[in-house]
């Protein structure tokens, strides 16, 4: 199997004696061993198999195998949430005295990890701007262990050349970790572009229907073995039920992303010249500052359009309160279109100065464009902007 859609649909855990066509849910916390010797061998890692569902489970294993194949990774570890994936990665590879270079445009909770959680454990960081790649190398120190980046970023939709970062990481012997949540493996494959680890909040497009929380860390077998060694004892594991949902959801990821991207591009094009809109950011608009990079490393532009409504926070609130089809929610990547005001929700813990630096204005609204008919989506936006 070589094609994305076929891999996503046909990769499946081994069938049981019942010959089920669709993989069952393995709701078990533990497993039976044939004898004492098998138990010993499994715990000693001399034999592969399931020991305890905090370690592995047929459902999480199927999900990991699919995602690794789709990303071009060797292995992975599935976590309970996307933030658990980011925390687990940082905690695995960082120690007191280490340093991170991170894109300034990161999710609010990732910002909290860097500024509050890991800071008190002696890990320092510097932020770099995605639109100023020439500044990144000067921030790398002898103790820099990890380069972390979101591309496209949340919610600024900024982009950086991953091949450039991969070369930088190789030159300075650091890990390159990419949050690939907005792009999904269907649109972008960071590991094939030179990243060491790719992370997803599977809660978003991987599920795609607002049902299940989950995350995943993908990379080489050597790196993931370090992740597993940490995660087995710290316990951020994905539940078998959510793993089953996410694995089934991958079967429709390609067709969903095709429609998300098609709809989002049409919304971005419609809004670009709207008199009530100050700014539109979408990777596949020629007006996007990193349009050429986006075209080089992404298959399509994704399902997120970020806009700045004229009139500041009052203009944004008036627009959001006028929406009838769109849901007002902090989530994204749902089948249903969603509007979010980042400055007062997902990125509210940043100072106003920090938000302004990454392009989050009081009038900024993140639009997660869903799978509804495009005419209905645009009609709702149009009436809300009147």
TrEMBL record:
Organism for this UniProt entry: Pedobacter montanisoli
Any one GO MF annotation of this record: lyase activity
Q: What is its EC number?
A: 2.5.1.-
Which Pfam families does this one have? Cys_Met_Meta_PP (PF01053)
Query: What function does the entry list?
Result: Catalyzes the formation of L-homocysteine from O-succinyl-L-homoserine (OSHS) and hydrogen sulfide.
Quaternary structure and partners: Homotetramer.
Q: Which family does it belong to?
A: Belongs to the trans-sulfuration enzymes family. MetZ subfamily.
Which protein, by its recorded name, is this? O-succinylhomoserine sulfhydrylase
Keywords of the record, alphabetical order, are:
Amino-acid biosynthesis, Lyase, Methionine biosynthesis, Pyridoxal phosphate, Transferase
Which cofactors, by name? pyridoxal 5'-phosphate
What's the encoding gene here?
Answer: metZ
């Amino acid at each position: 199997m070589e094609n994305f859609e076929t891999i996503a649909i046909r990769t499946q855990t081994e069938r049981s004696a019942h010959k089920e066509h669709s993989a069952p849910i393995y709701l078990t916390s533990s497993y039976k061993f044939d004898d004492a010797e098998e138990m010993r061998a499994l715990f000693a890692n001399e034999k592969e198999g399931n020991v305890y569902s905090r370690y592995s489970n047929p459902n999480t294993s199927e999900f990991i195998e699919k995602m690794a194949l789709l990303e071009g990774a060797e292995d992975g570890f599935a976590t309970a949430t996307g933030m658990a994936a980011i925390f687990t990665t940082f905690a695995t590879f960082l120690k007191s005295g280490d340093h991170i270079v991170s894109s300034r445009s990161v999710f609010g909770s990732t910002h909290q990890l860097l500024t509050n959680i890991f800071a008190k454990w002696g890990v320092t960081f510097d932020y770099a701007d995605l639109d100023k790649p020439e500044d990144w190398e000067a921030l790398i120190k002898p103790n820099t262990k990890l380069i972390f980046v979101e591309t496209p970023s949340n919610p600024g939709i900024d982009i950086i050349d991953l091949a450039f970062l991969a070369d930088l990481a190789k030159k300075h012997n650091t890990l390159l970790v990419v949050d690939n949540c907005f792009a999904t493996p269907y649109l972008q494959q960071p590991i094939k572009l030179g990243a060491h680890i790719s992370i997803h909040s599977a809660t978003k497009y991987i599920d795609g229907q607002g049902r299940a929380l989950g995350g995943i860390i993908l990379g080489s077998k050597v790196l993931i073995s370090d992740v597993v060694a940490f995660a087995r004892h710290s316990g951020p594991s994905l539940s078998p039920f959510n793993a089953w949902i996410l694995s089934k959801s991958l079967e429709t990821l390609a067709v969903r992303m095709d429609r998300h991207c098609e709809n989002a591009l049409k919304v971005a094009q419609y809004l670009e010249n709207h008199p009530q809109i100050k700014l539109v950011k979408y990777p596949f608009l020629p007006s996007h500052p990193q349009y050429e990079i986006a075209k080089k490393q992404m298959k399509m532009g994704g399902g997120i359009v970020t806009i700045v409504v004229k009139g500041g926070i009052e203009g944004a609130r008036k627009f959001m309160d006028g929406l009838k089809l769109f849901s007002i929610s902090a989530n994204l990547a749902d089948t249903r279109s969603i509007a979010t005001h980042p400055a007062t929700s997902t990125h509210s813990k940043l100072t106003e100065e920090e938000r302004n630096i990454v392009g989050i204005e009081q009038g900024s609204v993140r639009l997660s464009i869903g799978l509804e008919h495009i005419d209905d989506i645009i009609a709702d936006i149009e009436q809300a902007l009147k």
